Protein 1
Amino acid sequence: MVDKLPDRPSEEHPIIAGLVALVGVGLVVGLVIGLVVLAGTKVLGIGGDDDGSSADEQASIYLPTPSKTSEATDPETSLAPEGESPSESEDPSVSESPEREITLSASMTEVGPMEQFQLTGVYPMGEGAILTVQRMQDGSWVDFPATGSVSGEAFQIAVQTSKSGVNRFRVVDTDSGLESGEVRVTVG
């Protein structure tokens, strides 16, 4: 006797075979679309953070060290009363430009050899200026291999050194030659 091989299910039930194929294709397409959406949210930064960090942990703020200023007059007493114009003896075309000054501070005053610290400061009207770091060596200021630029009237320059002892740093505007005061950082 010759046994007859059983027919395939697709030949017996073409509708069921079509539904199984449709469900399989739907699952594959859904998986691919899901992976594309997941990758897109990661790239665009949409959704929650997986690492548990928050905006507060990533945010930073720079507050310069307070320094004494010259005594200023009360702003209300220096303004002309409403409706009155400045006296004729004042020449409105001549105005004093405020003195440009670079303030400088160090993020740490004591560091280990080759431990990174930041030189930060404020440079009013210095937008876009390139600042070169200098270090006092043998009684004169020598360029140090670190530079930074001013953005929003502020700057931050990363510095590392292995020279132990007290190191004196300052920054200089490469275009105007304007110099900041010095800061001291003890290494070692």
Protein 2
Amino acid sequence: MTLDDDRPAIEQVLPEPKAGRYVLHLHRNADVWTWAVAVAVAAELRRDLSAHSRARLVLTADDVAAPVYRALSKAPLEWSRIDLAQTDERWLRPDDPDSHAFRINERLRRGHAIGARFESLTSVGRSIEESVSVANAHGRQAASAAVLGMGTDGHLASLFPLMADLQRVFATPEAYAAVDATGSPAARDWLRRISITPSGLARARSRLLLLRGRDQREAFEYAIASGDRASWPVLAALDGPGPLQVHWCV
């Protein structure tokens, strides 16, 4: 299997029976999962680059995506025409090892991908309000794809259940918002953040949710059954053009 091949290696594809708002791809092992996702993302980028001068890729910093990014960095794409964006960021310097920017750059911007242009959500000397304004200027460009991760608590990007201002962020028409994650244990010590919003997610032509292990799959299935976005913000990824592509393996 190579990244020149647009056909992901999928063991089983099961559409959600009622609404058809997501497709569940079940992969037989981690290697197949990794390369299937990398091939799918590369195909979306290649498709956009054939029609537009630039392509944009929105990326989670979730650890689950690390092997996918390493595989994707080997894709022979015109990376100099690709903009890399973030789903979210802690209010940290982009070179801080705890920042999401640091993780994404370390895992993806290597090999062929070294030439991609990175859009950091934070910048030294820029206020959080200014940072959100810059992010929203970038976010007006539709993304070729958004690679997403999910916590077992149902959080997506920096949209956490029980977060102090979740409803405000859900309601904004902007692509990004400053968030206060007070009330969410999963946010740990980093309560001040910038996050993509449901409106921002809906601008991605393709959305891929990466899940690993029984706990994450069961959490996602519980979220779908509940339909409660306040308790399961991951459901915000269902909105957008075409169904959410959910890739899972043990």
Protein 3
Amino acid sequence: MWRLIKILSFLIVLAGVGLVAYAYIGPVFFPADFAAPTQEVSNPVTLETN
């Protein structure tokens, strides 16, 4: 049972390190995934008056 807990905790730590590495290094290797949308959005707004 102790071995299972150690393996799960190691995998959780490894996943956390991988997520942080992807957040910092990801824009260098995958710039399209981190790019902001470049499409202009315009929606009409109707304001009610008294």
